Task: inverse folding
């Protein structure tokens, strides 16, 4: 019983250190933070284009 407690204590103490030592030091590159305005402008322009095409005069038919 005492040996099990000692083994558990050692394992609990060693696991975080083992994870820290396993790191290879790789640092992910920083991602350039862009603003929200460019994508928002593209979306607004796309919605406006769709609305203009959707609500244009429908009298231009070739059903004469």
Result:
């Amino acid at each position: 019983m005492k040996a099990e407690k000692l083994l558990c204590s050692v394992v609990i103490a060693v696991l975080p250190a083992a994870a820290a030592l396993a790191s290879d030091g790789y640092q992910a590159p920083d991602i350039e933070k862009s603003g929200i305005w460019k994508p928002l402008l593209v979306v607004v322009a796309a919605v406006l284009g769709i609305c203009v095409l959707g609500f244009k005069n429908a009298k231009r038919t070739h059903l004469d």
Q: What stands out?
A: The chain has a mean pLDDT of 81. Residues 42 and 48 are 10 Å apart (CA to CA). The helical segments are 2-21, 37-54.
